Amino acid sequence: MIKWQHIEVWRKLVLPEIESSCVYWNRDNESINDENQSIASLEIPVTNVDGISQDQTMHIIFSFGIATQHIRTLKSMTIARLLNNRYWSNLDMHTSLNDCCLSLSETMDKILSEVDLQKSVGAYQCNDSETIHFRVLVRLNILINDDQQKMEIFLKDSTTTIEQLLQQIQMVNSVDRYLASNDTHRIYQNNEIVINLNTKNFLLVKENETCIVLIESRKNDNGSELVHQRFTTWTTIGDILKENNIDIGKQQLLYNNDFAPSEDTPLSCFASPIHLSLIDTILSTAVTVNNPEDDNRSLTFYCSPST
Predict the structure, then answer these.
(1) Is 107 found in the same domain as 10?
(2) What is the pLDDT of residues 126-155, one digit of tens each?
(3) Alpha carbons 43 and 86: distance in angstroms, whole number
(4) Structural domain for 44, as ranges
(5) Number of structural domains, the chain?
(6) Percentages (nearest 5) of helix, strand, coil residues in the chain
(7) Are 125 and 162 in a shared domain?
(8) Domain boundary residue among 183, 209, 235?
(9) Closest C-alpha among 59, 75, 55, 72 to residue 133
(10) What does each of the 307 residues of the chain score in pLDDT, given as a tens digit?
(11) Could you tell me which of 183, 178, 225, 219 has the C-alpha nearest to residue 201?
(12) Same domain for 180 and 281?
């Protein structure tokens, strides 16, 4: 089985005047072929390969927390092209490249700009070192609800919890704060891992802007399960249905074992804790209540005809 290291041995015999060791650059996937790789294992039968002097290459390390990816590439390769390379997925970050940024290992406070990413990796070589270490950061966007100010925090590893993220947020007062989903407005628990939440946008709220929701569901063995959750007070019943993946065509949430609030009903209409029961029937009788003293606002709920 012929490997790339055999090609290099053959090259030295045929071209002894080239003293420097060479690596073999695959133009199709913009990577250096592993010397222990079999030529027959190439994904493309016909491949364009360039022999490049090894002193024109560099060792690159990308790291996200304890996860690392080692790459040997050409000094002329731009950082942006490396980020779009197949190696990026090996960090297993479960996030889009658009949500990430880079910093040099020695200067964590220096975030590389779009202009920096267009520079070659050789531009960052220092002290004749053949290794450059880039740290991957995930950009998180946080909106502070009470004053609508926006802030950015950079996630440095995959083990950071919501509690640790809250500790990084510097606030003037000591009021208890919570981080909520920007979508369904669920309050994240302190022990949840940030990178696993599949979102980069958060809402920072005070405790008095939240309420507790208890959802009880029946089990096949005649038992029940009670789910404790916290939401913002402006969360709607529809948000709760979405957060809990409830099939609105077959199920409803019953309040106080009495009626099912409509999906646009905000939780501010109820006193916390709010007890809801998940039922496998659809109550079809709609009742709408208008309040002429409050701009004629209305609330709709569903009940059985006998209620």
Answers:
(1) yes
(2) 777 788 888 888 999 999 998 888 999 998
(3) 14
(4) 4-138
(5) 3
(6) 20, 40, 40
(7) no
(8) 209
(9) 59
(10) 766 666 666 666 666 666 677 777 777 777 776 666 666 666 655 567 777 777 888 898 988 888 888 888 888 989 888 887 566 666 766 677 777 888 886 656 688 888 999 999 888 877 777 888 888 889 999 999 988 889 999 988 889 999 999 998 866 566 779 999 999 999 999 999 999 998 999 999 999 999 999 999 887 767 788 999 999 999 999 999 999 999 998 999 999 888 999 999 999 999 999 999 999 988 888 888 877 766 667 788 888 876 5
(11) 183
(12) no
Residues 28 and 38 in one domain: yes
Q: Which stretches of the chain are assigned E, i.e. beta strand?
A: 22-26, 31-32, 49-53, 57-64, 67-74, 100-104, 107-111, 131-144, 150-155, 177-181, 201-206, 210-218, 224-232, 252-255, 260-261, 274-279, 285-291, 297-303
Last residue of a domain, one of 187, 209, 231: 209
Closest CA to 100 of 49, 133, 69, 64: 64
Q: Please give the structure tokens belonging to residue 148.
A: 């609508």
CATH number at residue 291: 3.10.20.90
Per-residue pLDDT tens for 11-56?
666 666 666 777 777 777 777 766 666 666 666 555 677 777 778 8
Shared domain check, 110 and 48: yes
Considering the domain architecture, whether residues 50 and 133 belong to the same structural domain is answered as: yes
| CATH number of the domain that residue 182 is part of | 3.10.20
Tokens 């510097």 -> residue: 170
Q: 10 and 134: one domain?
A: yes
pTM passes above 0.85: no
At 208, the amino acid letter reads N
Residue 182: alpha-carbon gap to chain centroid: 13
Ramachandran assignment for 56, one of left (phi > 0), alpha (psi -120 to 50 degrees), beta (any other) = alpha
Which two tokens mark 78? 């731009």
Tally of residues, the chain:
307
